[in-house]
Amino acid sequence: xxxxxxxxxxxxxxxxxxxxxxxxxxxxxxxxxxxxxxxxxxxxxxxxxxxxxxxxxxxxxxxxxxxxxxxxxxxxxxxxxxxxxxxxxxxxxxxxxxxxxxxxxxxxxxxxxxxxxxxxxxxxxxxxxxxxxxxxxxxxxxxxxxxxxxxxxxxxxxxxxxxxxxxxxxxxxxxxxxxxxxxxxxxxxxxxxxxxxxxxxxxxxxxxxxxxxxxxxxxxxxxxxxxxxxxxxxxxxxxxxxxxxxxxxxxxxxxxxxxxxxxxxxxxxxxxxxxxxxxxxxxxxxxxxxxxxxxxxxxxxxxxxxxxxxxxxxxxxxxxxxxxxxxxxxxxxxxxxxxxxxxxxxxxxxxxxxxxxxxxxxxxxxxxxxxxxxxxxxxxxxxxxxx
Length: 387
Hints:
Layout lengths: L1 H35 L4 H4 L12 E2 L3 E4 L4 E3 L2 E4 L2 E7 L1 E9 L4 E6 L6 E2 L4 E11 L27 E4 L17 E10 L4 E4 L8 E2 L4 E18 L11 E6 L5 E12 L4 E8 L3 H6 L5 E7 L4 E6 L23 E8 L5 E12 L4 E5 L6 E3 L11 E4 L1
Parallel strand pairs: 2-24, 6-10
Antiparallel strand pairs: 1-2, 3-23, 4-19, 5-18, 6-14, 7-9, 7-13, 8-12, 9-11, 12-14, 14-17, 15-16, 15-18, 16-17, 19-22, 20-21, 20-23, 21-22
């Protein structure tokens, strides 16, 4: 009996001593199990800026994602357009250039002076070598400096020579009868405009190919934009162009006046005449940088996506007004097809909405699903499993 009581007391002592240890082990086990539990999809896909955080599980032949990684197509209608950019300049502008050595006799205008068509600008004297004295009667001075170049609304600059094409006779055959004579020529304005870059003075001798002055009509303005040659079928003469100018709040209107394809480099030159109205007359001036757009084609359908859906693209250029790219902006996006396989598809970014911070894209069929997960390129072709 005494032995039994002693044994019972010993067993009770052992139990009392081991109870705290068992409780500690149980608590540690529970904490371990809690720590090993996966977080909920909502917790896993939330971040500081409320954008999804990618946690796909990728295996050899499948990609496991959550429902939050899947975005349905939301059709949105939009008008296709092309971005145009250029610098304002006068439609009519001309550089008066000496075709041969001259001497300036008189300067009849001043720099920055507005002159009417036909106004005398300069008088110059040129030397001629004649075979016979009677030749002088056959050579008539060009008092308007018309030259061989004509002004065209489709040209940005023109060059006028202060001589006729036949004003110098050939004296190489009979030097015994040749003699020198001088001719006084008056250069006149071919159109109304402003005198610029006047750099000559009376008595100055001018070498051939020297620019005498520039004449510009700033009442009629245009700008020239460069587009890829692929846009040739999308733009035509007469289309309306809406544009803005640097440091100006108002919007302006222009019209395509000419479309010209050039070969080196292969590109398209688009000439846009500014619509002359009170707004443009008061605010637009030469050398201003302008940016505009021209609509083309029929209404098309795109879809709205968040930034995390777009890959391999720099979006900073359309995150400022007018929130549309000047050139075609291509990105890649993950598509889940009807066979539940992943496809990496190129698309075009059309526009950015600064209010929703989302992007309008084109190039996705309405029967597809968009995968928002940032997957490696090796995920292409793998089957999607939604967990």
